[in-house]
Write a sequence for this structure.
């Protein structure tokens, strides 16, 4: 059902925005590192509704968070990273899900996000040596991505059990 | 675990080992001949000799960029970005740079500060940075 899909997409966008902004309030040991909990909703949208919804949730979330926070640099990093992450997760989930389980698809998304984020940072700073920062980013991204993947899988199962999922 | 999962797990473990190694190698020793290199917009704009600053003293340096600014605090054995005009203050939160290869980056003002000390330089530069 089209209407149900739209409503769930909108709810996911709303929740992702709140979580995105809330997690910004937690101090992190290194710059550029965060839990990426908003990714739960991109992935859950992919699992429940498909490719288009996953991209919709990502783009709307990043854009609306920017309207609220006004941080252009976060916007550039998140938009590049978020779109790359969504593309990688869509590809792995739709074509290669025999080889990858959901938590690790989420990790792949986290890596793609980190790579995109860092590429943008390197362009802004004009210092390509910043790419070595990829190692701490990937290590923390793996842990965070795996956790958000498990959450997204749980979320998509629970919601389908309670009968909201399209038939 | 599926096959691709295992491949990704091994990539992760390799990265984890690299990260731990780079941390171990950067721990040792007091900085000698401390210097800082300031990049703006990809170019070196200042090279500061920190070892000339007397022990216990500090100096401030303000750097402007297209209406934005950062304030650096220079000490004998370290350098820190202590004020910034941008909202996120990532460069300030990094704190004081005291180990060779440490760096702080401010995206909005295209600024990057890199700490150098000759003591460990050869060993460390070869490994990760």
């Amino acid at each position: 059902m089209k209407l149900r899909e739209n409503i769930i997409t909108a709810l996911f966008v709303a929740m992702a925005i709140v979580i995105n902004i809330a997690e910004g309030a937690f101090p992190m040991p290194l710059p550029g590192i965060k839990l990426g909990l908003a990714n739960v909703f991109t992935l859950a949208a992919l699992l429940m509704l498909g490719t288009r919804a996953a991209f919709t949730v990502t783009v709307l979330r990043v854009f609306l968070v920017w309207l609220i926070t006004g941080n252009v640099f976060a916007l550039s990093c998140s938009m590049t990273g978020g779109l790359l992450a969504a593309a990688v997760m869509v590809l792995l989930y739709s074509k290669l899900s025999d080889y990858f389980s959901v938590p690790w698809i989420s990790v792949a998304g986290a890596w793609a996000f980190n790579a995109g984020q860092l590429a943008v940072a390197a362009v802004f700073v004009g210092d390509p040596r910043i790419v070595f920062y990829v190692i701490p980013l990937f290590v923390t991204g793996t842990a965070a991505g795996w956790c958000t993947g498990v959450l997204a899988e749980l979320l998509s199962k629970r919601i389908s059990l309670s009968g909201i999922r399209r038939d | 675990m599926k096959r691709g999962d295992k491949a990704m797990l091994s990539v992760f473990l390799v990265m984890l080992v690299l990260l731990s190694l780079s941390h171990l190698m950067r721990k040792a020793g007091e900085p000698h001949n401390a210097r800082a290199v300031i990049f703006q917009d990809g170019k070196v704009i200042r090279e500061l000799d920190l070892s000339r600053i007397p022990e216990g003293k500090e100096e401030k340096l303000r750097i402007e960029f297209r209406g934005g600014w950062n304030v650096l605090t220079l000490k004998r054995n370290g350098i820190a970005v202590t004020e910034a005009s941008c909202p996120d203050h990532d460069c300030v939160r990094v704190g004081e740079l005291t180990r060779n290869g440490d760096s702080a980056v401010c995206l909005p003002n295209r600024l990057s500060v890199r700490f150098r000390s000759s003591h460990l330089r050869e060993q460390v530069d070869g490994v990760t940075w």
